[in-house]
Amino acid sequence: MKILSTCKLALTIGVNLIMLSSYAQKKTTTSNQPNIILLMADDLGYGDVGFNSNKKIITPNLDLMAKSGVKFTNFYAAAPLCSPTRASVLTGRSPFRQGIFAAHTGAMRPAEKTIAEVLKKEGYKTGFFGKWHLGWVQPDEVESRGMYSPPWHHGYEETFATKSAVPTWNPTKTPEGWTGFGSEDDGSWGGSIYVHNGKPATENLDGDDSRIIMDRAIPFLEKSISKDKPFFATIWFHTPHEPVVAGPEYLAKYPDLPLAQRHYYGAITAMDDQIGRLRAFLKDKNIEDNTIIFFCSDNGHADPLAKKGIASAGPFTGHKHQMWEGGLRVPALALWPKHIKEGIVSDFQANTSDYFPTILDILNIQQDKKVPLDGVSFNPILKGESKVRKTAFASGYQRLYNDTELYAYIDGQYKICIPEKGDEMMLFDIKNDPAEKHNLALEKPELLKKMMLELEKVKESWKQSREGKDYQW
C-alpha cells in the first residue's frame, strides 16, 4: 500500500509538473508576442513635425522616436484624404477595392478582413481609440451618406470612437468663431460624438482631445497587461484636423506666431505630449522593448490651412484632396526598441496599405492568397536591410457628383498623376524633381503611355474586387 501511495504521489507530482511546464511555456509564448500600436494623426502635413526639419514646431517625442527607430522619407497615404487611407491601413487593400472613394461615401464592408480580426484570433486584445471615419458608430443614426459600420464590427473589443472630426480642444463644444460643419448657435457641438463601447460617452470630455483619447487607451493597455495578453491598439487622433484648437498651456508655447498657427502648432504639440505619455507608460510597465509603434498621417495638410500658410508640406507641392506629393506623402516612423536598429532613415516607398502585410510578416502569419492585397511588407526595412520597392502602387480619390476623379501611379522614380480637377495626366521624375515642377509628359510619351496602361489594369482589378470577386456572399 505504501509503495502504491508513493507511486501515486509521484505520478500526481509528475502530471502537475508537466501541466506547469506547459502553462509556463504557453505563458512565455504569449508574453513574447509583440504588442502593436498604430498611431495616426489627421491632416498632418509632411513638414509639420520636427523630425522633418520644421524648426518651429515642438514635437520632442516624435522626434526622439524618429531618431530611435526608422524614419520614412517616402511614405505615402493610399489616398489624399481620410476615410480611404484608413481603410487601406486596416486591410492592406486599396480603398477603391472596398468602395471607399472619399470621406462619407461608404463604410467598411463586413467581408473585409482587418488587422484587428486577424490578431484577435492570434490571442491579442484589440482596442480602437479616436477617429474611426469608416462608418457610423451609432446604430440609430441615419444620414444622407455612409452607413452603420462601427469598429466593433471589425475585430475591436474595446472602443472609444467618433464617426468623424471633432474640435481638438473641448470636443463637445463649438470653438469660438467656428462657423463650419458641426457648429451650433448655443455653443454645443453638432457634429460627431464619442461612443464608448457602443454607448455615448458623457464623462471626461473637456480639454485637450488627444489627452481624452489617451485617457481611454492606456486603461485598455493596462487591462491587457494584467491579463498577460498581447495587445493591438489603434489610436487615431483628430489632431490637427479642423476645427483645430489648442488649450492655453499650448498656445503659450508659441507666443511669437500668428494666432491661427499657434492653435495649429499647439494642438500638434499636445498630441506629441500624449504620445510621450504613452511611451512613458510602456517603459514603466517594462514592455517598451516588446511593443512596436507605427506612426503616420492619413494624408497631407488641409486645404484652408495650406492656403493660409499655417500648415506645411515641406519641400513638396500640394495638399489634401490633391494627387501632388504634398497630398500623398506624409510623415511616418516605426519604433521597436532593441529590435529595430536606431537612426535608420529609409527612402523605401512605403504606403499605408503596407501595414497589414508588414504586421503579418513580423508575426509570421500566412496571408490569405485568395484575397488580393495592394500592400507589401516593409519588415526588411525594419531589420535594417536596404531594399527598393519592386511593385508599383496607385492612389485615387473620387467624388463623381462633383466631377472629381483623380489618380496617381508610382513606379520607382516615376509618377503619373492627375493632380487636380481639370488637369490632364502628368508625368514626373519624383527622384530628381520631388517638388514636381517639370511635367515630362511631352518629353517621355512612351513611358507615359506605358504607365497609363498599367494604371488601367490596376483600376480594373479594383473594380473586380469591389463588385464581388473577393467576397463570399
TrEMBL record:
InterPro entries: Alkaline_phosphatase_core_sf (IPR017850), Sulfatase (IPR050738), Sulfatase_CS (IPR024607), Sulfatase_N (IPR000917). Residues 34-365 form the Sulfatase N-terminal domain. PROSITE patterns: SULFATASE_1. Pfam families: Sulfatase. The keyword Isomerase does not apply. It comes from the Bacteria. Residues 1-24 form the signal peptide. Keywords: Calcium, Hydrolase, Metal-binding, Signal. It comes from Mariniflexile gromovii. The keyword Metal-binding applies. Belongs to the sulfatase family. Gene3D superfamilies: 3.30.1120.10, Alkaline Phosphatase, subunit A. This is Sulfatase-like hydrolase/transferase.
